User: What shape does this take?
Amino acid sequence: MQTELISHTDVPLQVAGNEEDFEFHFRHFFRMRGPKLMAADQRWLPPTDLFETQDALVLVMDIAGINRQDVSVKIEGHTLTIQGIRREFSKYPKRNYYLMEIDFGPFERRFQLPWLVDEEKIEARYSDGFLEVLMPKQASESSTGSVHITPKEDDNG
Assistant: This one.
């Protein structure tokens, strides 16, 4: 049996789509594993998947611990913007941390969509800590608007 080594030059390099993606991956890789101070205006970036099906774009964002009312989804042309805030868990007012990995505060993510989507048919659902935005493809001109987030039937929101 012969072992074949694969050089890193044989694997195609995929570069992040924009500066926000690069910062997200950089922060995740070099993330401190303990209490940290965060500037008041610094925003965290929830992990997100954006993929294509046969007739739609689908975005799935991990926003566990956020109330549905604290999230907004807006679309303008080819740009999808999701904003929100995760409020600090305050059940224990006096705390001495040994580990602190959960990000709190405001966030905003903007995504350049590869094509226009049908604004009238966009669905946004929030369940089990995940925001799911289903965006059917559209053939006509630019659209602008906000999207209402609905809970799944078994979700209390």
Observations:
- The chain has a mean pLDDT of 78.
- Helices lie at 19-29.
